[in-house]
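Sequence only, no structure available. Ideas?
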Amino acid sequence: MLPKNLNIYWIVASSVAIWFLFIHSPPFFIRRKVFQDGPLATHLAGAYTIYLACMFNTMFTPSTLHGKAHPWHVWVGRIGMVAGIVSFVFGLYCAWWPYRQIIPPLSFSIGITFGGGMQILTQKNGYNAIRRFGRLKLEVEAMEKANKRGEVLDKLKEEKEGALRSHIYNMVCLFVAACGIPAGLRLADMLPELLGPLRLVAVIALTQVAIKPYGDTFITSTNKDK
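Reply:
I predicted one. Tokens follow.
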């Protein structure tokens, strides 16, 4: 039986990640001697960590492996959150600090900053949502234990489910659209040049369109587990 989170969305997103991280990028790192550039190397370490954390956590959600994946999901997520902040700060410096020896093209800096901003936003929203979910879950359990029923409990349950959905969609966006932006920029470069700026627009639009249906797969899976 295939893992419940193994689907076309995970396969495509993870394939793009593996291609970008381990096939496309290493030759550039060697030519660029990035490990002699402290800020860039730090940015890359953070970027690799959060991208791989997203890949892991979208496969191993808390209920997988009969619940044994839960602590791994939590700790990998926490590591990814810290790595994401480190990556964003040093990436911003590398993209825009005017006195660096090598300054990237303006179009790349704009695209990478857009991705970084989306990354931080989805990290913040996803983290706040799962914290809210945990708090509401405890409130619901306390009311059920006390045999309290009624509209108040129903509303808390609805808010709890909404918080979980918010966490899921934000984390999917983090994986596919935010962490995937650098890979998307490189994939856009492979499209015909006559398309011009439409190449980047097409790649970004594709990632945005995939967020909702990919997130829905987790919602469906969660409902089945109840």
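The chain has seven helices and no strands.
Hope that gets you unstuck.
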